[in-house]
Design goal:
7-stranded mixed beta sheet, Aspartate Aminotransferase, domain 2, 4-stranded antiparallel beta sheet, single chain, Aspartate Aminotransferase, domain 1, alpha/beta, 12 helices, 2 domains, globular
Length: 397
């Protein structure tokens, strides 16, 4: 029997709930579900790279050989053999990572939330790149920080600009490899300067690295966690090298912080899926990624070049863009008077979507910027979509 409620509840939300905002990208993705839309909006890995057969075999093997363990609750910090694999993969001659530093999380987005929960108080100063990853800005915003933007240029974050905004800062958040949204990467020299600067200031440095394996050519640049394991917090993910549907990431932190993160995760979800962790370990333990990742690099590199060539052909003078050597994104800067939000409305009317750049800024958004992703769009549709965008931009110049 339904009870009548003569006095409807007047919901009183917590102050942090008032800070929650919808992801602009997720809202755009609702539109781009329409098959006729050429979507350069989502930062989604290509389904062509998903190792479906290997995952099926691994699930079968894990459930057949160790099903009762896989289907049980697991430890908060994660499946030990997988944590050992991660620690070994990050260890170098000069920096030894131990499994106790590794915390498995439900996608690296959870790592951002846990780091915010453990390190940020209301009003805490948090340093971010200009622009920065939207998901990090969202995760940290819940804890009401004071964002301070660190200067960037065409080569990425400028370490020499940190001192002027570093006083009292709790952390600096960076994406050194094929950054989302710009596609830029930090040189070895800048990485060293960044690590040295943060060490001198006693400033925790977050190295978010979901795209580091996706270099189109050459060897990946050295990780900053190897330069200073006591001061760098490293975040990794299996979303871009296996599949995002498994929601499996990890954070590697100095031991005092790792323990605090573990306690915060206990309160959040007890542990990440034991079954998923065991399956991923089964897939990767014998070197599968060494054969699989080069295939992803080749596909993304080819599609990136298709987009760059199309932009060179169809975008008018006065438009600038990055030329990434890895990852999933190209960053476009339009003439100052063109508003990318308005351009998006016109593009969607022409069945093309992208992400305006404004949401990626913590402060003083550049309204004449936008992000393009090329990895889920076939070459012919890339060319057609870029041609449409070029015409729309040219009409505004």
């Amino acid at each position: 029997m339904k009870i009548e409620n003569p006095n409807p509840i007047q919901w009183q939300f917590a102050e942090r709930a008032e800070q929650l905002q919808a992801s602009f990208i997720r809202e755009i993705l609702k539109i781009t579900q329409q098959p006729e839309i050429i979507s350069f909006a989502g930062g989604l890995p290509s389904p062509l790279t998903f190792p479906v057969d290997e995952m099926k075999l691994a699930y079968d093997k894990v459930l057949t050989n160790n099903g009762k363990v896989a289907l049980q609750y697991g430890p908060t910090d994660g499946y030990t053999p997988l944590r050992q694999w991660i620690a070994d993969s990050l260890s170098t001659g000069g920096a030894k990572i131990v499994p106790e530093q590794v915390l498995m999380v439900s996608g690296s987005q959870q790592a951002l939330d846990l780091l915010g929960k453990v390190l940020i108080d209301e009003g805490s100063r948090v340093l971010v790149e200009t622009p920065s990853y939207l998901g990090a800005l969202q995760a940290f915003s819940v804890y009401l920080p004071e964002f301070k933007s660190v200067a960037t240029d065409e080569h990425g974050l400028v370490p020499s600009s940190i001192d002027k905004v570093a006083q009292g800062a709790r952390l600096l958040y960076s994406l050194p490899n094929f950054q989302n949204p710009t596609g830029r990467s930090l040189s070895i020299e800048r990485r060293q300067e960044l690590v040295e600067t943060c060490a001198r200031l006693g400033l925790p440095l977050i190295e978010d690295d979901p795209y580091g394996s996706l270099s189109y050519k050459g060897e990946p640049l050295p990780k900053m966690v190897a330069m200073n394991p006591d001061g760098v917090i490293y975040m990794g993910s299996f979303s871009k090298v296996l599949t995002p549907g498994i929601r499996l990431g990890y954070v590697v932190a100095p031991l005092p912080l790792a323990r605090r993160l573990e306690l915060a995760k206990q309160a959040a979800d007890l542990h990440t899926s034991q079954l998923t962790q065991m399956v991923v370990h089964e897939v990767i333990k014998d070197g599968f990624l060494d054969q699989h990742i080069p295939k992803i690099r080749a596909l993304y590199g080819d599609q990136c070049q298709v987009m760059l060539d199309a932009m060179a052909q169809h975008f008018p003078a006065g438009v600038e863009w990055t030329k990434p050597e890895g990852g999933m994104f190209i960053w476009v800067t339009l003439p100052q008077h063109i508003n990318a939000m308005q351009l998006l409305d016109e593009a969607i009317a022409q069945k093309v979507a992208f992400v305006p750049g404004s949401p990626f800024y913590a402060n003083e958004p550049a309204t004449n910027t936008l992000r393009l992703s090329f990895v889920t769009v076939p070459p012919e549709r890339i060319r057609h979509g870029i041609e449409i965008l070029g015409k729309l931009i040219a009409a505004k110049i």
